[in-house]
Amino acid sequence: MPLVVLLAGWATGIGLNLLADSLPFRRRPASVDCPGCGASRSWLAYSGILASLTDRESCAYCGHAAGWRPALVECVCLVAAAWLMLRNPQPLALLRDGLILAVYLLIVVIDIEHRLILFVVSIPAILVVAVLQSLDPQRGPAKTLLGGVVGLLLFYLLYLLGGLFGRALGRVRRQPLDEVAFGFGDVMLAGLIGVTVGWPGVVVALFLGIVAAGFFSLVFVLVMLARRRYTAFLPIPYGPFLVLGALAVYFGGRTAFERLLG
Predict the structure, then answer these.
(1) Engineered SS bond to 212: which of 52, 116, 120, 241, CB 3.0-4.6 Å?
(2) pLDDT tens by residue, 169-212
(3) Residues 135, 129: Cα–Cα separation, whole Å
(4) pLDDT the model gives residue 172
(5) Phi, psi of 65, deg, nearest 5
(6) Is the pLDDT of residue 259 over 60?
(7) Please, which residues have CB within 8 angstroms of residue 224's CB and are 6 or more apart in sequence?
């Protein structure tokens, strides 16, 4: 059983890397050739860990390096698989929690690399996670769906306010802003978080995510000011911080937060 779970975690990491390489450009899973010259990759190169061990991290034709992300994602998935197995070895719980972690990890990787939260990821994930969480006897469909609706509405309001702020600031600066604080992808992510943690956990999860993003932004601004490299309105991806809040509530504090909020 442990070996099967670890192999499943490794395979999940390989699959997530494939999706992270293809979805931002094609919006569908696809085999990804070398981005430098278009040459086909060897089968060993599809695994970041195997590519590192066999010295196939770079393209044999043009030398384009795959980078550290593939191996890191696979290692994270291996560690996550071991942790989930120790946390709850029941097969159904492993599948559910593993799927949720995999979806959020994919969202984080794509958002960091491309500043995108793709509908092709978030919408199917909302539907699947909503069904899985509705079947959970500790939550049920009412809390699951209410959490999703609240998450969507809260961040849709922030999305509208951010758009108004951006247009007003653009008029003052006489130059339109290229970036907004919250995109509609963040709205869909908030809906996914809502069905993941349900009601009332969604309120705490989103609050934690916003606070974490604000703290990081403050530290980032101070560091850039100290290095004299600060640029106003430099965008940062909010997705990873929202995911952090969601996972903190889902895995760490759901019961406590629900007791707190009623």
Answers:
(1) 241
(2) 556 666 665 555 678 889 999 999 999 999 989 999 999 999 99
(3) 10
(4) 60
(5) -85, 140
(6) no
(7) 230, 231, 234
Cα 99 to chain center, whole Å?
A: 12
Tokens of 19: 């999706």
Picking from 84, 53, 82, 91, the residue whose alpha carbon sits closest to that of residue 70 is 53
- Would you say residue 130 has pLDDT above 60? yes
The label of the residue with tokens 């999940």 reads 12
Residue closest to 249 by CA, chosen among 199, 186, 213: 199
Cβ-contact 147, 197 below 8 angstroms: yes
Could you tell me if 230 and 161 lie in one domain?
A: yes
Amino acid at 73: V
Is 160 inside any structural domain? yes
255, 198 Cβ separation under 8 angstroms:
no
| Side chain identity at residue 191, one-letter code | G
| Cβ-contact 111, 117 below 8 angstroms | yes
Is residue 165, in this structure, part of any structural domain at all? yes
Residue that has been written with the tokens 């490299």 in this structure = 229
144 and 221 co-located in one domain: yes
pTM: 0.87
Is the pLDDT assigned to residue 135 strictly greater than 60?
A: yes
User: What pLDDT is recorded for position 162?
Assistant: 74
- Count of structural domains, the chain: 2
Q: Give tens-digit pLDDT for 68-83.
A: 899 999 999 999 999 9
What are the CA-CA distances from residue 255 to residues 92, 93, 130 (Å)? 20, 17, 19
